Amino acid sequence: MTDLSPAATPQTPAPSALAMVPFVSVGDMMRLVHREGIDRVLRDLAAHIEADFLRWPEFDKTPRVASHSEGGVIELMPAADARLYGFKYVNGHPGNTRSGHQTVTAFGVLSDVATGYPLLLSEMTLLTALRTAATSALAARALMPAGAATMAMIGNGAQCEFQALAFRALCGIDRLRLYDTDPRATAKAMANLRRQGFEVTACDAAEAAVEGAQVITTCTADKRNATILTDNMVGAGVHVNAIGGDCPGKTELHRDILGRATIFVEYPPQTRVEGEIQQLDPDHPVTELWQVLAGQAPGRRDAREITLFDSVGFAIEDFSALRYLLGRVRAGAAHARLDLLADPDDPRDLFGMLERARPAG
Ligand SMILES: NC(=O)c1ccc[n+]([C@@H]2O[C@H](COP(=O)([O-])OP(=O)(O)OC[C@H]3O[C@@H](n4cnc5c(N)ncnc54)[C@H](O)[C@@H]3O)[C@@H](O)[C@H]2O)c1
């Protein structure tokens, strides 16, 4: 554990225990994933997400707060139960990779509801990729056709390998068909996924990628109503895991597919604004994923049904991921401690604490 507070001086004594907040850096997160093994992390995250989805009514929920600009969006995603409060800061800027920036970056906080004090501050760029993949695979486990072994992956950017690994760890899928408009992205994913032991085929068109696939993951980034899948590309019995349509005006599927599919969502008030279903009437029937997991609503009903997980990413998934991470930190996972909270000796003498740090003379 690293202590990141500056050296103590007579004016600024070492911060107290209450001042310090555990911080999981990107380096710490990478060490955690390698120490635990990524399959185990994905399964543990899925278990935490499932456990929280099963107690869905206990949560204080709200659609995320999105601040849109021409090139992207910055979002705050809060969720709380009676004990813990979490939020994530996340951006989505599809043009970013052209300047060497990532499309999605994130960090987040988990706090103690009783005092309001943060318990954990963490990087969440890697954690978002892991939790998104775990959520997708959790949904697919309940919705995909029995015996599915091949997945088409359209969009081979940052999220791609995480999705593939989660689908293998939770759903047993180990054959992949990749397509991206940028062949360099497909080449990158091919190399990474072959090293992970997948059977991978690179395809030169989305139409070719979906051939023979029982699951189709769309994971593209483009700030427009794109048509990654047309109606004729989605055959009977397929499960569609649609990840990239997650903002107003940013969708991936042709509307006709939505008319033929049974649609599963995270939180309807958010998905109706951000998901594929923004293309439909506001009362178009959808099923909430948590209800399927809780046995309160049916998942896939027959082998010919087209199921669609219209994923946008919901705050409870981040809450669950932070809850998992706090458990690992408390069990000794690598982290630093930040001098984040002012902690005066007399809680009402914040000013006195500041004055004692006044430079002499
Ligand atoms: N649902 C969620 O919970 C969730 C979570 C994280 C990210 N996302 C979304 O997932 C998407 C992918 O994120 P990322 O971090 O992998 O982005 P990325 O920019 O790293 O990768 C996106 C890839 O899509 C490709 N692409 C763009 N248009 C395409 C098209 N028409 N056909 C095929 N490929 C195309 C790009 O070339 C790029 O390689 C983004 O839209 C992001 O907002 C959703």
From TrEMBL:
A Pfam family recorded for this sequence: OCD_Mu_crystall
InterPro entries (alphabetical): NAD(P)-bd_dom_sf (IPR036291), ODC_Mu_crystall (IPR003462), ODC_N (IPR023401)
Gene3D superfamilies: NAD(P)-binding Rossmann-like Domain, ornithine cyclodeaminase, domain 1
NCBIfam families named in the record: PRK07589.1 (NF005762)
PANTHER family named in the record: KETIMINE REDUCTASE MU-CRYSTALLIN
UniProt protein name: Ornithine cyclodeaminase
